[in-house]
Specification:
287 residues, Nucleotidyltransferase, domain 5, six-stranded mixed β-sheet
């Protein structure tokens, strides 16, 4: 557990999410096919047939545009010529079936293997980010330290900045309480190891909760005299949150359910990983 992080080589390219949005669409289609094959995506009953072909691709791209551009469902429905109710129902159904969580897990393991690492991490980094939220959001509180009225997004990421567990809570919930659902998600996935966080995660109560789940909470100082110190791998979660800030749907939270907010966080990381895996540099073969 050191500070060295050596990601796989990718072909150089300027950051442009729209240039590689097709990679996101392809990965979602692959996962939908896999879910239909193993029975985790049952056939939808109703008078209208399921979307297929070019219309399905357009719907997936519309959901991505909601996440990246922060568009309203009604607006993207007008632009895509697909009823916004159909788009929202499709997003809600896929969220309920666990599509985004399943796809993100597969891409994360694929990226770790491409980096020459094992599929599952031995340590994670935990942290939270306070975001302003609309009055219609599922929860709202005031973060007194950051003077933000909204919610907190809780993350547990591995050394390549990719999340293993995501949760959200009102911004006035203390980090030691808000991170508990994340720790439970980690335990359900079979993670056993250290969870590194800042000094906000100190306390015997949280330590006991972690011990009961087989997770060791390791609070460490990440700053001194107002200067950030990249201690061990604790700094990687800050880059994860900076990536999320590029997705406008996650800057001011308007979701009416926590599950939909978590889904948009997962969509953001799926988009990042899809582009990255598409640009993997081919391995050189020795003559």
């Amino acid at each position: 557990m050191g500070t060295a992080v050596r990601p796989a080589s990718t072909t150089p390219a300027s950051w442009d999410a729209f240039s590689d949005v097709e990679a996101f669409v392809e990965e979602v289609l692959i996962e939908l096919t896999a879910m239909a094959a193993d029975g985790s995506r049952p056939t939808r009953s109703g008078p209208k047939p399921e979307l297929t072909g070019a219309v399905l691709r357009k719907a997936i791209m519309a959901i991505w545009c909601v996440a990246f551009c922060g568009m309203q469902w009604r607006a993207i429905g007008q632009l895509s010529a697909i009823p916004f109710g159909t788009l929202y129902a499709l997003f809600a159904r896929w969220t309920r079936l666990g599509l985004w969580r399943r796809l993100l897990g597969r891409l994360r393991r694929t990226w770790r293997l491409a980096c020459g690492d094992v599929a599952e991490p031995s340590a994670v980094v935990i942290d939270s980010r306070s975001c302003p939220s609309a009055p219609s959001c599922f929860a709202r509180g005031v973060d007194g330290g950051k003077k933000i009225r909204g919610i907190k997004i809780q993350l547990a990421v591995e050394k390549y900045n990719l999340p293993l567990a995501i949760d959200a809570s009102p911004a006035n919930v203390h980090d030691t309480k808000g991170i508990v659902p994340v720790l439970r998600q980690l335990a359900e996935q079979g993670f056993q190891g250290p969870a590194i966080g800042d000094l906000g995660y100190r306390g015997n109560r949280l330590a006991k909760v972690g011990d009961g789940l087989g997770i060791t909470i390791q609070p460490i100082a990440r700053g001194r005299n107002g200067v950030f110190i990249p201690t061990e791998i604790a700094w990687v979660v800050e880059r994860s949150f900076s990536w999320l800030s590029r997705y406008r749907r996650l800057n001011t939270i308007v979701e009416r359910t926590k599950e939909h907010l978590v889904a948009f966080v997962e969509i953001a990381f799926i988009s990042i990983l899809s582009r990255r895996l598409q640009r993997l540099a081919p391995k050189q073969v020795n003559a």
